[in-house]
């Protein structure tokens, strides 16, 4: 039995640029960035502008039913070899299963794009099997990056634009913006608009242009805790409490959990080279010294207790075993326990 062709993001872009088209594109998964990018590329580049008025249809899953899709997809193009039908927010189309017969026998002159964001298609469904079992379907699954993959993504994103960025700036961005690629790309695009040619992005440029306080950010808190600097840690905490919207507790616990988990690994490798440690913890070699400092500042039992504390307060920040205690008070309690 023929199967749908699973391609990577770059493979799909290459085939589109060569004008090699599939009758159906299933773009699905948790990470919306690549789905949006591919959808935009098809929308802007497959048809000439003069052909779009009659041959390009943009629909939204929440506003339509399967009949609207069928009516659009089964039309023939007007004075053009192809027509494009894009279903944005396809995950909201409640009658997607009713399209099974079309998935089995799509029109070759139609390019149907299903932008199914934020979750994977349930492959157990009959209509999903019709999609993944057809050689006329191109499937792209957009998976969410792990936190430790984000720094490399940032570096590569800017490298494609021929822009250099320093390791400290990458780490600051990754810690502050998390793994939301759409958010990261938007911030980087805004940042690079007025960046002088040949300028390497450093943490000072990040702090100035993205609204990250130079002295009071989660990266600096992590650094202060690693050195067990009580005064600086509580100074930063005080700032966070005064600015809760910019410093939500779940983001802080996630960042510190990631940091101390790496410190825990580093502690058992203190005789290894910086390169070996960096490889083991998934960090840039530039920052190994910070993990080493923290590994020497706490005992193994203390780090285990810190990790347990971070798990506890992450749950409490989300309402588990929390008797309506404000997040600011939870944050203060958590830092007291970490510093002992």
From TrEMBL:
Question: Might you give the EC number(s) for this enzyme?
Answer: 2.7.7.7
Native source organism of the sequence: uncultured Aureispira sp
Question: What UniProt keywords apply to this chain's record, in alphabetical order?
Answer: DNA replication, DNA-directed DNA polymerase, Nucleotidyltransferase, Transferase
Residues covered by the DNA polymerase III delta N-terminal domain? 25-137
Matches recorded under InterPro entries? DNA_pol3_delta_N, DNA_polIII_delta, P-loop_NTPase
* The protein's name: DNA polymerase III delta subunit (EC)
Report any one BP term from Gene Ontology.
Answer: DNA-templated DNA replication
Entry GO terms, CC: DNA polymerase III complex
Any idea which GO molecular function terms this record carries? DNA binding; DNA-directed DNA polymerase activity
Whether Transferase counts among this entry's keywords is yes
Q: Which domain of life is it from?
A: Bacteria
* UniProt xrefs under PANTHER family: DNA POLYMERASE III SUBUNIT DELTA (PTHR34388:SF1)
Q: Which NCBIfam families match?
A: holA (TIGR01128)
